[in-house]
Amino acid sequence: MITLEHCQARDASDELAAFRSQFDLPAGTIYLDGNSLGAMPKDAMAHANHVIEQEWGRDLINSWNKADWWGLPTRLGDLLAPLIGAGKGECVVTDTTSLNLFKAVANAVRIQRSRHPERRVIVAERDAFPTDLYMIQGLLQSFAEGYRLELIEGADALAAAVDANTAVVVLSHVNYRSGYLFDMRAVNDLVHGRGALIVWDLCHSVGAVPIDVSATQSDFAIGCTYKYLNGGPGSPAFLWANPKHQAEFWQPLSGWWGHARPFQMESDYAAHPGIRSFLCGTQPIVSLSLVACGLDIFRQTDMQKVRRKSLALTDLFIALVAQECAAHGLTLVTPTEHAYRGSHVSFRHPDGYAVVQALIARGVIGDYREPEVMRFGVTPLYLSFADIWHAVQHLKAVLDRREWDQPKFRARGHVT
Ligand SMILES: *Cc1c(COP(=O)(O)O)cnc(C)c1O
Fold first, then answer.
1. CA dihedral 317, 349, 409, 401 (to 10 degrees)
2. Does the beta carbon of 96 sit less than 6 angstroms from any atom of ligand 1?
3. Number of the ligand 1 atom closest to the C-alpha atom of 201
4. pLDDT by residue (tens digit) across 167-206?
5. Are residues 135 and 204 in the same domain?
6. H or E element: which one contains 54?
């Protein structure tokens, strides 16, 4: 039997507990949606003021040099690199995840086209976050005629799907809905062993689980900064490309920021030889600047500690739901095995949407993903063991009292 006292005792010995004070969270809220939009680092307010008042307001256009706005995508890429096991100069923060996925897959397809033109299949999961599939579909229509997308049903189908026709495999490291975590090294070995290249979407794993794209010999990786990395709403995403492919770096959005000599104003495109070639046009500097605040917090810890607490919190969440809510027919969607679990916990419930709305009305913020999946993100830097206890008590109350069964909790907003 797990008790509140048990949870409080774990908080008392939590080596990451002090990090919560670096985030600005509203009182009375238990925030279980940091996997969708991370909480605000307290430094973000002062940093935003500095960028707007001083860099923009006072220094105006001088800030491209004086504040090195020009170098920001790669400076942030270097700050982010340790979180994914990348080296210096291998990563840029720019554009959106959707766009970066497009660029990375386009590059991978082009590399394969020159080496193995007979390989014409891109393998992805049907259960991938839809934008990933949509971007591949658009890519196939515009740049990769003759190629086709093959969707696999679940992780277990991967080994059978990758064969002598596969050019590129595109996978989410952690599945956005179920929280399933792929074994990156095992997948890379499989994919490379069969002559294909891999593009990883790290949106739900960066800042949540330890990642080593270099040691596992990944080819390309992309991901968000506004989820576990707390970069702010719509903050630019990142792209990493393995330097072993540098001679073949290429991306279709050949804008001037990716040019080798952008201020020579040449009429012909000549790509920058390095990772900057994945930039396109002028960056959203205010939003981009704020990415540093979340990354600065991660620099003070290491991902092994974050992972240990993440697993302890998700274990606790799963055990408490089993203990407190057993009568209510919640089906755990997230893998129970640590090796296959990311940092969120999902349950199916036929009225999941309304249950989540009723929880939000009580100050417990999770979210809902079709079909029927209630999703609870676990962010070890600003959640406590007692938070998990209280969240499950609210869930129990909502279910015991059928609080969710009201028309106001069934009305859908634009964003679920
Ligand atoms: C959040 C998320 C995205 C979002 O892409 P944007 O271009 O930032 O809107 C893409 N893929 C996955 C797997 C995600 O979790």
1. -70
2. yes
3. 13
4. 999 999 999 999 999 999 999 999 999 999 999 999 999 9
5. yes
6. none
Distances from the Cα of 150 to the Cα of 41, 121, 124, 133, 188, angstroms: 40, 7, 6, 10, 18
Residue 57 half-sphere exposure, CB side, CA atoms within 13 Å?
7
155 and 187 share one domain: yes
Whether the CB of 134 sits within 6 Å of ligand 1: no
Residue nearest to atom 11 of ligand 1 (CA): 129
Q: Which atom of ligand 1 is nearest to the CA of 36?
A: 1
Catalytic residue list = 129, 201, 226-227, 375
pLDDT band at 136 (very low <50, low <70, confident <90, very high): very high
Structural domain for 352, as ranges:
4-16+302-410
Q: Say if residues 297 and 22 touch (Cβ distance below 8 Å).
A: yes
Number of structural domains, the chain?
2
Q: How many CA atoms lie within 13 A of 349 on its CB side?
A: 25
Please state, as a whole number, how many other Cβ atoms lie within 10 Å of the Cβ of residue 219.
24
Rounded to an integer, the average pLDDT of 107-122 is 97
Q: Do 123 and 250 belong to one domain?
A: yes
For residue 183 the two structure tokens come to 């074994």
314 shares its domain with 396? yes
Give dist(CA 254, CA 280) in Å, integer: 6
Q: Are strands 121-125 and 148-152 parallel, antiparallel or unpaired?
A: parallel
Q: Is 35 helix (H, G, I), strand (E, B) or coil?
A: coil
Among 174, 224, 343, 415, say which to mutate for ligand 1: greatest number of ligand atoms within 8 Å of CB: 224
